[in-house]
Prior knowledge:
eight-stranded parallel sheet; two-stranded antiparallel ribbon
Amino acid sequence: MDNKDARGISRRDFIRNTGLAAAGTVTTALASKSLGMAGRMPDRPADSKILNFNERMNYRRLGKTNLWISEISLGGHWKNRNAKRYWGEFANDEVPDDVAQNRSDVVSACIDAGINYLDITTSAECLAYGAALKNRRHKMYVGADDCNLCIRKEQFRNVKDQLFNIDECLRRLGTDYLDIWRPQARTDGSNTDADVETTIEAFDKARKAGKALHLGMSSHHRPWAQHVIEKYPEMEMFIFPCTAKTREKGLAPLKKNVIETDAGYGADQSSSVFKSLRERDVGLVTIKPFMGGNLFASYGKDAFPVMGAGTKTENDLARLTLQCILANETITATVPGCTTVYEVDNAARASYNRPLGISAAERHWIELHTDRRWADLPAEYTWLKDWEIV
């Protein structure tokens, strides 16, 4: 690996800069904007200072990381040859030629669109996107973790193994550092405070070694996520699900929005997670915008690679869903997985068109469609319903 990346940052400069950084360390989704962060938002930097800036794309500040990232960013997952799930790993760490070409084309489309953040969760994604980003790593911020080595597994809940986790991400990506290390917590919320503190300790060592700049956390469990956000100021950003059904708890005058049984984590469950994020200046990247693919009738039917443009109905549905999610200004970015270049272009248009708003007819159409698919979620995705009132 080069001693300097394409931005001209040496490892020594990186370690110095990360040390300084560490020292300073939807009312309804289908309607109007949410409340902004308490206090005055820092001024947006000059366009020339925003990584991979495109004048059509909108950028938001990722909380106390002070990174300005594209509100439409890229999730690591994509359809596999069976048209359903992404690859979790590749045999012998070898990326198949068709996958390498597909991911390279998608990353090229993202760069052209002004997308500047990539979120990775598997070893296969590290390999595929590492190859796709070769000689253009400087165009994208990268947040990563390996689901096979993360704190979801009891045997890896120690500093040594989490440092190995980071090293394996770096090796497969072919890079010297991560912009964000964002460990993945257990989906049932059973990770302990000691587990969180292990990741903080591992991150501190990785930061000092110049291997990671910022710390985040990913969770599918809402009360646990709120507890971690409120207890640990070391968390600079968070990742959790958000769909077009998601709305902020407490803003609507409904009893079910403001009263909740104590889930046992000590956080104030009567208030919104979004409020906790704003008060602590924690950036938010949301996942599962399309309900794990279940928003679309064609999910699991179109074989990889999907070379066509898709149906107008599903393209409109995807774009308007992303616009609905981004109506919540507490959300920094949403990260759809994109299998084709056209899917990237369509997702980017959600940001390009967002200032124009959504018509009443469009809102009615997407509400009807979303409600129908929401009611028919398969058993493995019904947990998403816990993220309706957040």
